[in-house]
Structure formats: structure tokens, C-alpha cells
Amino acid sequence: MSHSMTHAKLDNLYTDDIRASLDSRMAQLVTTIREQLAESDDTGVRTQANPHEFTDDDSIASLYGEMKITHLSNELDELRDVVAAKKRLVEGAYGVCIDCGANITGDRLKAYPTAKRCIQCQKAREAGRQYPKF
Length: 134
Description:
The chain has 4 helices and no strands. With 134 residues, it is an all-alpha fold. The two termini are 38 Å apart.
């Protein structure tokens, strides 16, 4: 599909494609998160029964747990981004930068469907020049 979208007003076909893509990603994330939580519960039970099941080194076992928590946290953050993008789509604000109000390019949205900032504001934020609104 080739959509040259340079403005926030999206045509219905493109909106349907975005919605389907976001719905699909949301379903994948929910499944992954549920699996990780179930595995985490199982691991917790096993670890209580034998705290050295994975390794004799407590620091490695601790690091393994922290990595799993970090991965789960990343999945939850992405799920929040998908939900927020779906909300912006419904409200007609999808494709509009939340910081400056400029239109987010179609190329950026295609590469990163949950983008909430234009590339300039995102770069500024990552460089530490833009602080979150409270």
C-alpha cells in the first residue's frame, strides 16, 4: 500500500489499515504478557521450592529475574503506546504531534504506528531538550 500522507487527516482506508495493525499488535502483546506472567508465576513457585534451580550463583539468578521484569515492563510500555494510538485514532488526533501540534509524516507513522511526536520533537526529547508535560 502506498499512501503519501503528509497531513493529519487520514482517509478511511488508511485508518482501517492502521486500526487493524494496532489491533493485531495489541492482541500479540496481550498474549505475550499473559504468557510471561504465567511463566513468572511458575518460575516463582519453582524458585521457592529450589532457589538455585537455574544456577548456584545468586547474582546470576537475580539478574535473570531482573531481565524478565525489564522485558515485561517493555511489553507493557508498548501496550500502553498501542492503546494511546488507538485512542488518538478514534479522537481524530492520530498523526498529530502531542508536543508541537505539527503533522507526523506518513513515513514515520508507517515505520512507527504508535508515534505520538513528529521526528523533530522526538529528537529534541531524546536529546534532553524537551521535558514531559505534567
